[in-house]
Amino acid sequence: MSQEGAAYRKTMGGSDKEIISLKSLVHCRTVVEKANFVSTGIMTRAEGELFEIELSEFELFELGETVKLTIYSPVGIQSFQSIVFAKYDGAIAIIQPPIVNQRFQEKREFYRVEATGSVQIIRLVKENGEIKLLSDPLEARLRDISIGGVGLIMPPHEELSQVSRIGAIVQVGFAFACELEAVHRERRLDEMHYGFRMKVLDTEMLRPLRAFVLRHQVEQNIQSRSEESRKRQLR
Fold first, then answer.
1. What is the DSSP string of 91-135?
2. Which of 59, 106, 200, 216 is deepest in the core (most CB within 10 A)?
3. Is residue 46 in some structural domain?
């Protein structure tokens, strides 16, 4: 297969296994079909849990409507069935169905979106396993969030440099408890910027969190399309 046909190949158990990247679907002709109607557009984004398809007839699709996608890509014709999650000027956003993860087996980090919110750190777990409950929680502000991670900004705290895990409450219009594990930290002037892996303790809260991330992804896509449109007008 050509380089266009697969993002890369890796060896497993002595045989080559092709790993196809979702990026191979971007900029490809995409047919969107619903009951008694077919429209053709271009796949413009395949990020997070969403496909974005640019369509001149985007207004004819309804939110929550079931559609079939047929994508004519360098890695072959790909077909998926899913629902319309959002529509905005010149495009529709489609939820990526679970089968996407089976066909496109690359490892992807959870998609993070910029967001505002607050975080209270209520428990510290030191590297030796000692647990410290904080009667006066440490406060941080949210920078970005995904289903599996958060970015936080807060003043420096010496005790945070000695911990392996953190117990926290995240507030983004709704609140949920989580356990955080530091992945990276960086001091910028008088603030610390942290990146954490996140485990949501109540699995029931994953649904509103997923909806929150998807809404913010759509908002970012709308902003990005608006900026791209302005740049084209200035040329």
1. EEEEEPPTHHHHH-----PPPPEE---EEEEEEEEETTS-EEEEE
2. 216
3. yes
Q: Note whether residue 123 is domain-resident.
A: yes
> In which element (H, E) is residue 60 found?
none
pLDDT in tens, the chain (235 residues): 434 343 433 333 333 445 678 889 999 999 999 999 999 999 999 988 899 999 999 999 999 999 999 999 998 999 999 999 999 989 999 999 988 877 776 555 788 999 999 999 999 998 888 899 999 999 999 999 999 999 999 999 888 878 889 999 999 999 999 999 999 889 988 999 999 999 999 999 999 999 999 999 999 989 888 887 777 777 6
User: How open is the CA angle 79-80-85, to the nearest 5 degrees?
Assistant: 140
